[in-house]
Amino acid sequence: MQPVGLFRTPTQHLACSDGRWHELEGFSFDQLFHAASPHQLVQDLLATAPEVEIPPVTETPFLAPLESQEVWAAGVTYYRSRSARMEEAEQAGGDIFYDKVYEAPRPELFFKATAARARGHLAEVGIREDSTWDVPEPELTLAITRDGLVFGCTIGNDMSSRSIEGENPLYLPQAKVYSASCALGPGLWVGDLPGPDTKIRLAIHRDGAEAFSGETEVSQIKRGFDELAGWLFRQNEFPDGALLMTGTGIVPDSDFTLAPADEVRIAIDGLGELRNPVIRV
């Protein structure tokens, strides 16, 4: 089906379909993640939803497109991520683990954020006060119902402390889970998932100039979307569904670290662009 974008503001839920915008009255993201067929639910809501003016998407501070869902992440799903993780963990002797997990049948999966820790479009994302090497990780993020069905996707920013993770792989939760360590949006797109040629782009702006940029393609992800979702739901329960970041293929070089007042811009073809200013937390 043609993807439909679902957007959330403090007072409204909006849907974008074929370039036309509608207000969804009585809608909630929990309702979407509980549905047996999210696609059909969205189509039924659109049938009676009033049309509204097109919002200035790039300038509207949309909230993260979730409600009660947990956010999880997959690691080392791109070769570039494998190489970067081995580099940062080499001194601690943990580099071999990243090489092994890249080749292993079982993926690396880790908890990333509760809904309260997730930030939306134009909201501030954070770098830890006790970290010296910090990067954003641009990730295609899957939307999965409580029954384990992958039904849509959004843009994700998995903020990461490479200095803490590199010191010891057992510090991964501290490197990944903290206030404002996750951003999602601007909207959640329900429908067909991006194809292998879809571009994922990252740009970091500092003092009015571009300090870093890079891009990759969805085809570079080593594991399939249903495969990752299946591992996440194996012997686990998500009564409100989940969002799953699928890993990153763009990692700045080791001489780059984020600084307060930087702006992170992540774009994925067909999903728009997620922008977030950086603060120290």
Rg, please?
A: 18 Å
Reported by name, the CATH topology of the largest domain is: Fumarylacetoacetate hydrolase, domain 2
Shape: globular
Spatial gap, N to C terminus: 41 Å
Strand content: 25-35%
Helix proportion range? 10-25%
Low-confidence stretches: none
* Main β sheet profile: 11 strands, mixed
CATH architecture of the largest domain: Alpha-Beta Complex
Average pLDDT: 93
Total separate domains: 2
Q: Assign the structural class, choosing from mainly alpha, mainly beta, alpha/beta, alpha+beta, or little secondary structure.
A: alpha+beta
Q: Provide the CATH superfamily of the largest domain.
A: Fumarylacetoacetase-like, C-terminal domain
Q: Specify the CATH class of the largest domain.
A: Alpha Beta
Number of helices: 7
Total DSSP E strands: 18
Sequence of secondary-structure elements: EEEHHEEHHEEEEEEEHHEEEHEEE
What is this structure's SSE topology?
Blueprint: E1 4-8, E2 13-17, E3 20-23, H1 29-34, H2 38-46, E4 51-52, E5 70-75, H3 79-89, H4 95-103, E6 108-113, E7 118-119, E8 125-127, E9 134-135, E10 138-144, E11 150-158, E12 160-161, H5 162-167, H6 172-176, E13 182-190, E14 199-206, E15 209-217, H7 225-232, E16 242-245, E17 263-268, E18 272-280
Parallel strand pairs: 5-16, 7-13, 8-18
Antiparallel strand pairs: 1-2, 1-13, 2-3, 3-4, 5-6, 9-12, 10-11, 10-16, 11-13, 14-15, 14-17, 17-18
Helix pairs in contact: 3-4
